[in-house]
Design a protein that fits this description.
The structure holds 2 protein chains of 2 kinds. By secondary structure, chain A is of the alpha/beta class. Chain A folds into 2 domains: 3-122; 124-303, Serum Albumin, Chain A, Domain 1 (Orthogonal Bundle). Chain A is built from 12 helices and 7 strands. Chain A has a 5-stranded mixed beta sheet with strand order 3-2-1-6-7, sandwiched between helices. Chain A is elongated and about 90 Å long. By secondary structure, chain B is of the alpha/beta class. Chain B folds into 2 domains: 8-55, no CATH class; 62-230, Vaccinia Virus protein VP39 (Rossmann fold). Chain B has helices at 60-66, 89-98, 111-123, 137-140, 159-170, 184-187, 193-205; strands at residues 8-10, 13-21, 24-30, 43-46, 49-53, 79-83, 103-108, 127-131, 149-152, 176-183, 209-210, 214-215, 223-230. In chain B, strands 6, 7, 8, 9, 10, 11, 12 and 13 form an 8-stranded mixed beta sheet that branches. A 5-stranded antiparallel beta sheet of chain B has the order 1-2-3-5-4. In chain B, a hairpin with a 7-residue loop joins strand 12 (214-215) and strand 13 (223-230). The chains are: A alpha/beta, B alpha/beta. At the A-B interface, strand 1, helix 2, helix 3 and helix 4 of A face helix 3 and strand 8 of B.
């Protein structure tokens, strides 16, 4: 059965009639919403009226097929005739017949779409939390390094070194204040995005775990042993691998005797993987149960010293 | 700055140049984009052309050329689909190879590298970035026209299948080239890297006339470059000149 195929090709729609006839182009307008840089999405005109009219004007004996589900939905909404989905053969033929938009047009459309996709992705709470967690970790490292350096710096009195030491201390405390605000923001975001995990291991560690896992879906799929080692620097090995990653900084870790911390890390990772899964999927509030089990484990470990 | 050395066009591509320092041969591509450097590579003005060093330690395609790759390469004026462009280290060189009249459609899934790629594409007029999963062909079929070649560098267990599906959907019917930078350790550790490469070759052999696979050691461990053409695509031809010697070999 002869088929006419409608395709989206960058900023245009193309109607490719069965072999022999030339395809026709229908530009669709698009504009990035909310300014050029901060585009949240690209608004596209669903179907140009001229295209709908052209499709309706096709001979009734022709089958009309769309190149993708999105085009089919847009077209079905505006046309009076039924629109099928093109099969692989029809799609290949139509794609090779279709005139592709001019380089400038194509580029502008591609960059607008990419810009909008990046902005909306980076604006999502999960990506914001990942950015904050990375930034907080970096700043914390900087502060530690500066503090260490300042300890070994000898400022002799009544010399330019003394003045320098004072101004250095001032900038360190400014940096610490900046870190404090950042950490506060991070904790707030983490409590909102990862309520269960934040309650269990602490919001900062929750944020770091998310950053290391690369995303909420990935974090939710992690098994406990992997979660325990997220952020560890040593290579896992059969004999003596790492026992902690970022989880070493989790809440209540310091209250556990040093020789029982690995045991605590294992138990905590098991609970944390449950919490992460809940945060990623069901959003159930498991925090009270998990925290109670964590606290019981801590007191067990404190009592039963080896 | 070092005194400019003469750069001679490589027999493989007019936009790929070789510069010889003693027994060491460096690869350079003639740039389409503007400075600054993309990943810290060196730039040079030689004979009125602006060149960028194509570092085999950073780009698997360059490593393959150093190791004597005889298969297809992106040629001037061609349209290539690049899967797994990351922040654009190699993608920028592929864009250089296709030149201002060609196009590279660079697909990348993760946001942060993609943001860098987007910044890069503002300086490289022939590089068009697409933020999506390369497995989801429908999501980019309206942004990518039929292409002359598909380059894939995706460290995933199903990297061979992703390339096959994309080649099927995006190459011109009956012609075109593929290049696959295979990372054996992403497929699994159940067999040796060479066995993974052999299996990938077997899976691609039916549809394409494959060139001899090259191993990318020592630049990239347990990596291979596979590829070939079909139909009227640029077929692999034996190099007219002796192979470039391994530069900076360890």
């Amino acid at each position: 059965m002869p088929t006419a195929v409608v395709l989206a090709a960058g900023p245009t729609y193309v109607l490719v009639p069965p072999s022999g006839n030339p395809p026709s182009r229908f530009p669709r307008s698009h504009r990035p919403l909310t300014g050029e840089r901060g585009a949240a999405r690209v608004e596209r005109e669903p179907t140009p009226p001229a295209l709908a009219a052209a499709v309706d004007a096709l001979a009734p004996s022709l089958r009309v097929a769309a190149g993708s589900a999105a085009v089919r939905a847009a077209l079905s909404a505006q046309c009076r005739r039924s629109v099928a989905l093109a099969n692989a053969e029809e799609l290949r033929f139509a794609r090779e017949q279709a005139p592709w938009p001019e380089a400038d047009e194509e580029r502008e459309f591609a960059l607008d779409s990419a810009e909008a996709a990046v902005t909306s992705a980076l604006r999502s709470p999960v990506e914001v939390l990942i950015s904050l967690a990375r930034e907080e970790e970096r700043l914390e490292r900087t502060l530690e390094r500066e503090a260490r350096a300042s300890e070994s710096f000898i400022a002799v009195e009544a010399s330019p070194l003394a003045d320098y030491a004072v101004s250095w201390a001032r900038s360190r405390s400014q940096l610490a204040a900046h870190h404090g605000t950042l950490a506060e923001l991070l904790e707030r975001e983490a409590r909102r995005t990862l309520p269960n995990l934040s309650a269990l291991v602490g919001p900062r560690v929750a944020g770091r775990l998310l950053a290391r896992a690369g995303g909420l879906a990935g974090l939710g799929r992690l098994r406990a042993p992997r979660l325990q080692l997220l952020g560890s620097r040593r290579r896992p090995s059969a004999e003596r691998g790492p026992r902690f990653g970022v989880i070493y900084r989790a809440d209540r870790m310091e209250e556990v005797p040093a020789d029982r911390r690995a045991a605590y890390a294992r138990s905590l990772a098991a609970l944390a993987s449950i919490a992460a899964r809940a945060d990623a999927t069901t959003h159930a509030n498991l925090a009270p149960i998990l925290v109670a089990r964590r606290d019981r484990r801590v007191s067990d470990l404190q009592r039963r010293r080896r | 700055m070092r005194a400019p050395r003469p750069a001679r066009p490589s027999p493989r591509s007019p936009r790929l140049l070789e510069r010889t320092y003693g027994d060491r041969t460096e690869l350079w591509t003639e740039t389409v984009g503007e400075p600054p450097a993309v990943y810290g590579e060196r730039w040079a003005e030689v004979g009125g052309r602006t060149l960028r060093e194509f570092d085999p330690h950073r780009a698997k395609l360059s490593a393959a050329l150093v190791r004597g790759w005889e298969g297809p390469l992106p040629g001037p004026g061609e349209r290539w689909l690049y899967l797994g462009a990351a922040s654009g280290t190699t993608a920028s060189h592929v864009a250089d190879l296709v030149g201002p009249s060609g196009r590279v459609y660079a697909v990348e899934r993760s946001v942060r590298p993609f943001a860098q790629l987007l910044g890069l594409s503002e300086r490289w007029p022939n590089l068009l970035p697409v933020l999506t999963d390369a497995r989801d062909l429908d999501s980019y079929s309206d942004l990518v026209p039929p292409v002359d070649g598909v380059y894939s560098d995706i460290a995933q267990p199903d990297q061979v299948e992703i390339l096959r599906a994309a080649a099927e959907a995006f190459l011109w019917s009956g012609r075109g080239s593929i290049l696959l930078a295979l990372k054996a350790s992403s497929i699994g550790r159940d067999s040796t890297p060479a066995a993974h490469a052999a299996r990938a070759e077997e899976s691609l052999q039916g549809a394409f006339d494959l060139a001899p696979t090259v191993k990318l050691d020592p630049f990239h461990r347990a990596h291979f470059l596979l590829g070939g053409s079909r139909g009227g695509g640029p077929r692999h031809r034996p190099p007219a000149k002796p192979r470039p010697s391994r530069s900076r070999g360890r």
